[in-house]
Amino acid sequence: MWHEAMQAGGLGCGRGADAGWLAGIGNIPHGGSRGSAASGPRGCVRCEACGASPERCEEAIMAVAPKVVILASGYSWVDGCERDARKAMAANRDGPEAIANAARKAGARTVFLSTDYVYSGYGRSGGTAPYTEADEPSPRNIYGESKLQGELRILGADPDALVIRTAVVYGPEENGKNFLYQVARTRSAEMKVPQDQVSNPTYSRDLGLAIQQLIAVQASGVFNVVGDETISRSDFAQQAVDVMHRQWAPQRGLPLILPVISETLNQLAKRPLLLPLSNAKLKDTLKDFKFHTLAEALQDWQAHPRGTPLFE
Known about the structure:
The protein is of the alpha/beta class and 312 residues long. The chain is 34% helix and 15% strand. The longest helix has 21 residues, at 85-105. The radius of gyration is 19 Å and the shape is globular. 49% of the residues are buried.
């Protein structure tokens, strides 16, 4: 049963993408100022005191007395992590470890949001088979390395912790910065999108529901929680534009998607390219769990808006 959960946020100042999945858990409230705790239905609370100062996390956790602490924040700007490895490690490794230690001391379990970037992206065993949780991580950039180190520290602090590896999370969020917001809100007539980066886009509400159910069944260890479809970033963007035109904003001037090779984008951090992830372990654990297709997800988003509107 989902109750007495605490979201420890604010550990980094990245794009906020890590916290977008919270829209999938309706009983965790958004909002609350830094250093505050906002109560929600069924004993859920969002607390940013931990992120404001990791040294304060034990005091904050003891005050809330949660059964689960969810580490949903972090420094997720990939090129920013490459520029400032110390900041990345502080936000994605050291802070989460401090919070996990405090949670363990308080008798609470920890849930840590991680990324598909812990894998190399060269393809599993040099092929195209999806990565499983048992495959050896081998990050190509500082962001992926900092998240992997965070995983290891979390599991070291709490062997019963739940680590969630996810990818290309889209859906309603407060900050309005995930990939589909970028597609819908670009002022340019054209948008260059890599055609050689392949992954499993994941609807934020599916991610939130999966985490809720994994907690309910006392799951622990590492789980890939990603959508069913493996697709290139450019094809995902094109499908999104097509669906938006068809069922949401037929008169809106959405961008022409231009597929390009990643190298032409001159990004500071190397991006892993082939990142299909298997969600078989999740589905073996949650037998009836189903992910939305992109069209279904956008229809759900339109019917149940929350956070920043997709279109200005």
